[in-house]
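Summary for the steering committee. The consortium agreed at its last meeting that each partner would contribute one worked example illustrating the joint modelling workflow. Our contribution is presented below. We chose a case with several input lines so that the handling of multiple components could be demonstrated. No manual editing was applied between input and output; the record is shown as generated.
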Amino acid sequence: MKKHLIALLIITVFPSFLMGRVQKDAPKYQQAREKMVLSQIRLRGISDKKVLKAMSEVLRHSFVPEDLASQAYADHPLPIGEGQTISQPYIVALMTERLKLKGPESVLEIGTGSGYQAAVLANVVKEVYTIEIRKNLHTKANQTLHSLGYTNIKTRHADGYFGWPEAAPFDCIMITAAIDHIPPPLLKQLKDGGRLILPLGNPFSYQNLSLVIKQGEDYTVKQITGVLFVPMTGYALDHN
Amino acid sequence: MILTAVFLLSLSALSFEILLVRVFSISQWNHLSFMVISITLFGFAAGGTFLNIIDTYKKGWEKHLSSFENIHIFTILFTISTIISFIVLNRIPLDYFRLPLEPVQAFYLLTAYLLLALPFFFTGLVMSISYAFMPEKTGFVYFANMAGSASGAIIPVIFLPSIYEGNLIILSALIPLAVIFLKHPDHNQRRIITRRRYFRLICICIIITAGILIVKGGNSFVRVKPSPYKKLSQMLLFPNTRITEVTNSIRGRFENVESPHLRFAPGLSLKYEGLLPDQTATFKDGDNPLFLYQLTSQNDAQFSKFTLPYSGYLLVPHPKHILVIQHGGGSAIPCALASGSDSITIVEQQPQIAKRVQQHYKLPVINQNSRTFLARSDRRYDIIHIENWGTSLPGSAALTQDYFFTIESFTQYFEHLSNNGVFIVSRLLLLPPSDAIRLWATAYESLRSLEIKNPEKHIAVLRNWNSFTMIVSIPPFNDKTVLEDVSRNLNFDIVYLPGISKKNVNRFNVFDAPYHYNEINRLAEAYRLGTEKTYFGNYPMDVFPQTDNHPFPYRFLKWSRLKALYKMTGSRFYSLFMSGEIVVSAVLIEALGISILLLILPFFATLKETRKFYFSHMLYFLAVGSGFMFIELYFIKEYIFVFADPVISLTVVITGLLVFSAFGGYWSQRISAKNFPIAIAALIVILVCMFFIFNPMMHRVIQLNKFLRYPLSLLLLLPPGFLLGLPFPLGMRYILNLPAQRTYAWTINGCASVLASIASAQIALGIGISAIMIFAISAYFLAFIALCFKRI
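What follows is the complete predicted structure of the assembly.
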């Protein structure tokens, strides 16, 4: 009897505990989301219907700290702790669109952060693999994604530089942190014809959003636009 | 007693100034150290202005303020303000990047500025009082001031290897307190004895507090941390990353870092599928890292065969002798090792880095300036590979005086190549194109100076997405297949190769247009037509090749095209805001404003009858103040060529000039009013001679070994240094009559010095280093004229 009660407790209370940690949807957020998709994304030239649908469905306010929920749909990035940020909605949409996703793809994301980008990708493709190097961010994003019911996202706490060899090859890879080179292990895990998108350049000034396309044995790198991924400052310095 | 106070305060103030430069170099960037000069001299000048205002309300102040009580009070205030201002600077959340965005940052900046100026204000106050109180002994005051300053310049050199910057600032701030413990023959009255005990008690409290700060304050109060935007700070954000060793010296703070996340391989082809070898890194002042690879066999260096610079090695399949000129980075050494050459020579000018490279790779490392090494070497190399990637902040190196990439240095490299030799240099790829154009033009001009026909046929440029490699070959590129094949196989793009067509560029690393190809070909065409000057004039950035007289290879700003450049770089204010030239210009405007305020204030505050300061007086002290600083900056900049290190140059010149000036000042006590103009004339003659002979002499001095180079460099400063010590004390003694005049002259001298020091940077950038000497000669000529027309 006791065992049954404990099992029941786990089945009912634990998920509700998790659910209680994320911001639920509300009419004000729905309106903000619709406005965001129209004014920040569609009017700036994003036209992929799957991407637009994902952007209007994913609850961005659930991925930002509670005290910043009111700014979740504003046209700028927001801090999420550990010196990291959740990207500006337009950049999330742009990076997703440039991968030219059809639906059945398997995508690897490096830098889970809040989990928002993974959620957007999960609304578009079959499966998403996402890696985060910072333990706290990984744990928090994992909880958020599970509580929001994303079952096609697999998360891992590891150094994304080495990718996810067991799940490779991937149709697409997305790196969501500024980096000054393209990690060779990730290129190795890309399918022929695969696309890798990343903010490439000096992490201390501005970077170029770049798209790497693998064609047979060759790679081409195309510069899309200048981006500024906020430098990671502060916290770990004090720890060191 | 007052002369002892002048000596000790000068010593401590100059030591604080140099240590502040170190603090700014670590916590911010080098070019912001110009702010330190401005702060220092502003504080000094403000001391004189303050006394001028006092003069209005209290006659005979010079006697009152020069009493031992007041000198003790000023000394104690100096020590307290030095310690507090440093700790505030270290703790205040000042972030220059956020200055245009957060108004509170302006408040932080102002607070830091004013607090840091305070110690110099108290020093300036004691100096001004001394000149006003002892008009007949101005030479001795000058001697104490200069000798103290010279000693202060040496303190960081001696103690930085064993004491951190913060601790040394606190310790050197305590030195002037010694004056309070000295016994004075006149001070035997009971009242004086009681007061001295009181002062000594305060001093002991300060010393105990300082001790607690050093012992307990450690990491939070005293330790200077690098800017969060620097590479070291960024690196430390990664897990399992730690600093394993710190070496400190006047040249910089060197920190060795271990991390599993160090992955440095600039120009690496995307075709490389393996893992990079494990690496460690050494950071200088939190930036400009040198990466050292764990290479257990030659096979571990194979990754470098997939890098852009290695393309040059393919032109010389079995190189016999390779010369690597190292300045940060670290990927050139694996390239040399992968080539299989048995004779690899590495030249590294930083002793700490040279030692580390030698221990790590067990290769011969020459710890010398590369120009000195080549000037003393007859050996010819099959490959000369220069590695220099620059700082992590674009624009911050605009003021950096560097002789790696001048026409003369390229000529020296090419002269040391064998008949089939190649020269390789790699840099970061900038947009809009700038660095690549300048380097191409420098190579072209240098080849032309060596009378090589069709220089453009000896140059090739390849790129990937963020770096480029320029290869200069002694034989012309008649057979282009090697470079075409390597570009095709490793997915690099050709930027310039004689005869390459447009359809074969911009293929793998695609920009909207082949910007770099277009511009370099346009320049090559301009050279063919002889219209290169028009090209350089019309191009929106300054890409003119640099010379030894104008060695600023990382400066690209054209003031006339500032608006266009702002738009080209994405209308981001911050990308221009940290540019060295813009910072210097901002500091110059700020210093000009403060100088005008300090010079005008006494005229409003003082009574009419005391305003006996004539235009000729003003002109004289303006000219003498600026002249001295022009000379100092001229020598500092010239000696960077000899020592290849701005800090060593600064230390040698400041110490040398100040010591010789001190003796000049001392000797000035013997010079009569009649001989005063002769002293100025002699100085002008010496400076004119220096203008003509100094630069050629430097090219000789650089060939000497360091045991001759240092003493000879110091000796060359003797004639101008000695004579520079005459005009100020003589002017104070023979031109001026009233104490208020002398304090005002002190203010003028301070203001002129600060303006001249900042202007020197602009003159060197705009016209060239030798032009600073012309300004100095003109200044002393003006002083001579002012002296001839003086009204006493």
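Chain B touches chain A through 44 residues (CB under 8 Å). Chain B has a mean pLDDT of 87.
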